[in-house]
Amino acid sequence: MFTLHNKDVREIIESLKHGDIDVVFTDPPYGIEGSSGKINLARGKGNYSSEFEDTPEYIEKVVVPIVKKLISVCGCVVLTPGNKNFSLYPQPDSFGCFYQPAAVGLQVFGNLDAQPIFYYGKNASKKNMGVPCSYQLTEKAEKNGHPCVKPIKAWKKMLSNISLVGQTVFDPFMGSGTTGVAALQLDRNFIGCEISPEYYSIAEKRIQSAALQPSLFTPSNNRLHPDVGDSPAQQALFTPEADTAEGKLPAPAPPQVKRTVRPPLA
Ligand SMILES: C[S@@+](CC[C@H](N)C(=O)[O-])C[C@H]1O[C@@H](n2cnc3c(N)ncnc32)[C@H](O)[C@@H]1O
Prior knowledge:
Elements: E1 2-6, E2 23-26, H1 38-42, H2 56-73, E3 76-79, E4 94-99, E5 105-106, E6 111-112, E7 114-121, E8 135-136, H3 152-162, E9 168-171, H4 178-185, E10 189-193, H5 197-212, H6 232-235, E11 259-261
Parallel strand pairs: 1-10, 1-11, 2-3, 2-9, 4-8, 9-10
Antiparallel strand pairs: 3-7, 4-7, 5-6
This protein binds S-adenosylmethionine.
């Protein structure tokens, strides 16, 4: 089951309540104009589409308050803050990294060969013994039109270590939807939000396609079918109109993909 929003996540975050989600797993903007190096920027590579300013100020004023809100309502928040602006984030409870032995750039002191991973709260899988906080990364991410796609195998490995089958994973900055693909392939529920219509549409296609793939854990291989694993409560996940406390739920109508679109910019 998945729900996708094409919105600024600030528009929906206030409706998020304790218990709506089990895990936040996200790769926020890094405050570096969507690219990891001056050479790439100079060559016009890797820039984001223009829905937001990917600057340190944006991280501080927009991204960090979103992360703080999520930490306040969800007991397990895992994110990759990038190398340049991680000091703007609240201090994590646990720390790890993606170690990239092949190095992906050059820093003042040497190679850029690791990306930080920040962990807040507790592991939603209720395990921590034997669970790594760092991962060696040798895999290349797919090219799909987004400037900073995360590699799917590594992303799945991490998600499988921090969550359980059937739990609900939220990615407020889903980009091209790698977290959603990983979640569905691992039989987690997924809620994703992306501000850019261009990236949203890439994510929507990838996630729909992942939902149609055979799964090791579900009896049916067609999770878009309205009769399979589709309940009113699931439909209502993380929507302001849901009122599970009084048993009032929105009409159990397919389709299973919830698409919300931003109004045009003034
Ligand atoms: C680092 S990228 C995520 C890439 C993703 N991990 C992937 O594999 O494709 C961060 C994304 O956050 C989106 N974003 C930035 N500000 C946002 C906001 N306020 N609400 C929702 N999405 C936002 C950007 O458009 C960008 O696609």
